[in-house]
Design brief:
Oligomer: single chain
Number of strands: 0
Structural class: mainly alpha
Distance between the termini: 68 Å
Radius of gyration: 27 Å
Largest sheet: none
């Protein structure tokens, strides 16, 4: 009977540290999950931004090809450049500003513009680049 009481005392003494360790482990897993979610949400915002600017870019060009404006003006680009500065950094903001006065000249609007998207690869590509 004494052995059972001492066993119960030992197990009750071990219960508190065990619960604490399990709580810490769950906290660490939750932290890692939140980091992944933040990265996923940031990717979604960045990709959506790229597609919105690409849509604006593809509205430029000759009217015969269905364009609604001749070229991108400063006031068209600057709101995108300001948002890009906070989402990506200075390099993407400058890249977008370089499109001022230019127009999209390809015939296929459904084909992605790889020259526009190339600088975004650093922020949107999941593969490790060498």
């Amino acid at each position: 009977m004494e052995e059972i009481k001492s066993l119960i005392t030992i197990l009750s003494a071990l219960l508190t540290p065990t619960v604490a360790i399990v709580g810490i482990y769950i906290g660490i897993l939750n932290y890692r999950l939140q980091i992944r979610k933040r990265n996923d949400d940031l990717f979604d915002r960045r990709y959506k931004f790229l597609k919105q600017f690409e849509s604006l870019w593809k509205t430029t060009g000759p009217e015969q090809k269905g364009a609604t404006r001749m070229s991108l003006e400063w006031d068209d680009i600057e709101p995108y450049a300001q948002e890009a500065y906070y989402l990506f950094g200075k390099d993407i903001a400058e890249h977008l500003r370089s499109y001022e006065g230019k127009s999209y000249d390809q015939n296929f609007n459904w084909v992605p513009d790889y020259e526009l998207a190339k600088p975004f690869n650093k922020y949107l590509c999941f593969e490790k680049t060498k």
